[in-house]
Amino acid sequence: MSQFILHPANTRGHANHGWLNAHHSFSFANYYNPDRMHFGVLRVLNDDLIDGGMGFGAHPHDNMEIITIPLAGAIAHKDSMGNSAVIKSGEIQVMSAGTGVSHSEFNANADEQLNLLQIWLFPKQKNVTPRYDQQTLNVEARHNNFQQILSPNADDEGVWIHQDAWFSLGKFDNGFKTDYKIKKTGNGVYAFVISGEVTINGQKLGTRDAIGVWDTDTINFQADCEGAEVLLMDVPMELN
Amino acid sequence: MPVTILYIGRDADITAVMNRLLNARVEWIGICVCSDEEAISICLEKQLDLVLLGNGINQEAEQKLREKLLALRPELKIVQHYGGGSGLLYGEIMSALREQN
Lengths: 240, 101
Fold this sequence. Notes:
Protein name (chain A): Pirin N-terminal domain-containing protein
Order of helices and strands of chain A: EEEEEEEEEEEEEEEEEEEEEE
Shape of chain B: globular
Domain Pirin N-terminal (chain A): 12-121
Binding site for Fe cation (chain A): 59, 61, 103, 105
Keywords (chain A): Iron, Metal-binding
Oligomer: heterodimer
Structural class of chain A: mainly beta
Strand order of the largest sheet of chain A: 1-20-17-22-15-13-14
CATH topology of the largest domain in chain A: Jelly Rolls
Number of domains of chain B: 1
Domain Quercetin 2,3-dioxygenase C-terminal cupin (chain A): 149-235
């Protein structure tokens, strides 16, 4: 029997630091909600608005798969592995923190706000060698289609991570209907509405609302407005 | 009464950050070390409320560490802490202390 949990946008944790206006889908920093610790291996989903030129100075991570998806603007990244890059809207960045890595993240533009989603997953394997990757996505390929942007396989579409997780992004015409088949038994899907209105498994969702669905192999999707954008995170429900 | 938290991690830089973050809160006293021997000796000397197992500890070392710490203090709460920075720290410590109580 399929199960679900709804996370309306206005129930997310919120922290406004002036230069950073952050919404946390799960407990993060000073936002602590024991009922919002994780969805399976999905531990962090932060929706950050960062003022021009501002950002996070060098800070460490370990044993996390960290995925960054800029929605508007560009982020300048530098890390202790020697990577220095700018990731723009339409691209995706992944960092496997493994045994430990330090990085900084700043809004690459001085006069434009940056909006990004930062997502942390617990890895399948601990203490892996840290790695970094970024890819430019074909934005056209997500029109009325859940375009795979991340998987566990290096030779598959999108970036890859050390976890049995698949992410997909889609942008849909009003009334478009489709089913999404969960990639692996034991996985659930956390669907985050980036913009617009959609119906997932009979639940109506608006911008920045989310639904987590598990104990099923398929989810039913319908777009209820023109240009609705959705991120699906298909993740193991069991923590390693 | 502040809670005393022992953090064990292998990366000296991450461990130093953890030390700063833990001790930045008045309700926590953080003791952060990189070696298991040092961790055991602190467990003998101090009344610990919580142990965080952090970066770079392999499965075999973790198992041994847990056995040794629990042999000294069977009531000790030991949890894994990953992520490094401050993002997960507060929530995970609060959850561990909540379970303990």
